[in-house]
Amino acid sequence: MKLNMDKKFRNKTAIIILAAGNSSRLGRPKQLLKYKESTLLKNTFLEALKVENAFTIVVTGSNNNLIEKELNFDNVVLTFNSEWQTGMSSSIIKGVEQLLLLNPNCENCILAVCDQPFITSSVFENLRKESERTKKGIAASAYSETFGTPVLFHKKYFEKLLRLKGQEGAKKLINKYAEDVVSVVFENGNIDIDTEEDYKNLIS
């Protein structure tokens, strides 16, 4: 992890990019698929960097050496999840633990994945704006008649995120605390890359 303990880690929002999976359905690391003269992961990371008053954490796991080389920036915070095979929850926990280490007073975090090619900084910003406007503790992206990533959690949910197990993810808390959720439209958020066909459709 390349890290300077400077004022940016006192920012109130952490964007946690979950990039630990082994892309089993694709057969090669989806994080490194070429996209926009870059890669899916780098595209997500660079959009996250544009968000003001936020810092970004990337959780790696499978293929971590290749992925760390891809994100060779001075301002990247990389944290390795050695238990990535146990499920999504382990990466969420690793990311939240890292943000609490960097900034115990962090106000909220946004969980994001690296295979939504149409992610932009405005998607992240809209989540934060709607949470602040409505005073809701969870702001979830809405697409295809469901909620999904990216999703913002107020700090009051950090302990609950740390208690997730196995394949449990953000959806568990979104469903459990539905009265505290505001939905934020993410156009084309339903498009993600899981298979070669998905990728071919994206670049064709």
Automatic annotation (TrEMBL):
GO terms for molecular function: nucleotidyltransferase activity. Keywords: Nucleotidyltransferase, Transferase. CDD domains: GT_2_like_f. Residues 16-177 form the MobA-like NTP transferase domain. Signal peptide: none annotated. Pfam families: NTP_transf_3 (PF12804). This is Molybdenum cofactor cytidylyltransferase. It comes from Flavobacterium chungbukense.
